[in-house]
Specification:
20% helix, binds magnesium ion, alpha/beta, 10 strands, 4-stranded antiparallel sheet, 6-stranded mixed sheet, binds inosinic acid
Length: 181
């Protein structure tokens, strides 16, 4: 765990909950699983910005397949409440038809974002779509979507750090922090 004990972002305080070492170990395991399952394939990873940028970088360092990565930017959230309202701000330029897609997400909370993205990508007829999420909050799930790969399952608390934000801030921290009530 880094030296920092708690962090303050705008009006809220956050306390450390998952250290970087634990995050990286879980990502390594997830990558090993993808390497095994996708052997012989050339998947296209689609990183969902902004939240998944740090996860995508550490995941890709552990992937040994002959693969590609691209980025899509979605906005689905404001403050600490989900809106179930997904906007595509920066779209895909690649042709994904016939490709094996792996979506890289930071977190699956209500499931609205990933559900929207999967349906949107399916229209372009990829060969397969899988999802890899750093975090999963099973208790918050509202839709019937299960990520194929999850690094860490967490309780239904609002968290920041390692790419995740509160009102745009907090993405830079190495560890993950939970909101303090
Ligand atoms: P969903 O659509 O409710 O599954 O939420 C997905 C998006 O909401 C994620 O990609 C995050 O950007 C954001 N999100 C969900 N939970 C949290 C959290 O605890 N902290 C920060 N962002 C979150
Ligand atoms: Mg996000």
């Amino acid at each position: 765990m880094s030296e920092i004990n708690s962090i303050r972002i705008n009006d809220k305080t956050f306390e450390p909950v998952i250290p970087e070492s634990e995050i990286l170990a879980a990502i390594k395991q997830l990558a090993d699983q993808i390497n095994e399952d996708m052997q012989g394939l050339n998947p296209l990873f689609i990183c969902v910005l902004n939240g998944a940028f740090m996860f995508a970088a550490d995941l890709m360092k552990n992937i040994n397949l002959c693969c590609e990565i691209t980025f899509i930017r979605l906005k689905s959230y404001s403050g600490t409440n989900t809106e179930g309202n997904v906007k595509e701000i920066h779209g895909l330029i690649e042709d994904i038809s016939g490709k094996d897609i792996i979506i890289i997400e930071d977190i699956i909370d209500t499931g609205h974002t990933i559900h929207h993205l999967i349906n949107r990508l399916k229209k372009e007829q990829p060969r397969s779509i899988k999802t890899a999420s750093l975090l999963f909050k099973p208790d918050a799930l509202q839709l019937d979507v299960k990520p194929d790969y999850v690094a860490l399952k967490i309780p239904n608390d609002f968290i920041v750090g390692y790419g995740l934000d509160y009102d745009g801030k907090g993405r830079n921290f190495r560890d993950i922090y939970r909101i303090k009530n």
